[in-house]
Amino acid sequence: ERTQPVIAVTAHYDGRPAQRLTLTPLVFNDAAHILFLVTGADKADVLTAVLQGPPQPEKYPAQRIQPRYGSLAWFVDDAAATYL
Questions:
Q1: pLDDT for 3-15, tens place per residue?
Q2: Is 55 within the bounds of a domain?
Q3: What is the pLDDT of residues 14-58, one digit of tens each?
Q4: Which of 12, 15, 38, 75 has its CA 20 to 30 A from that of 63?
């Protein structure tokens, strides 16, 4: 994941093959603009951990998103931002 920008695989869902395309952090970190949209009180603990806690990118993949040249914005509602 750290060396490939895009991963394409065939996975099986309900016994049927399905194509899947995964964009890795390499793609997002090269984007001009990145935004996260977070809503709901059930996200408050995780949002706080992602933004204010120690780096744990294996647990919180959003922490891997660190744009090299672009901008990063977080749009959160009051419920999600409860502990910020």
A1: 677 777 777 778 7
A2: yes
A3: 878 878 778 889 999 999 999 999 999 999 999 999 999 999 999
A4: 12
CB atoms within 10 A of CB 50: 21
Q: Is residue 61 part of a domain?
A: yes
Question: Considering the domain boundaries, does residue 71 fall inside one?
Answer: yes
Cα 44-46-49 angle, rounded to 5 deg = 110
Confidence check: pLDDT of 1 > 60: no
Instruction: List the alpha helices (DSSP H) in the chain.
Output: 25-29, 44-52
Number of folded domains that form the chain: 1
Place of tokens 């959160």: 76
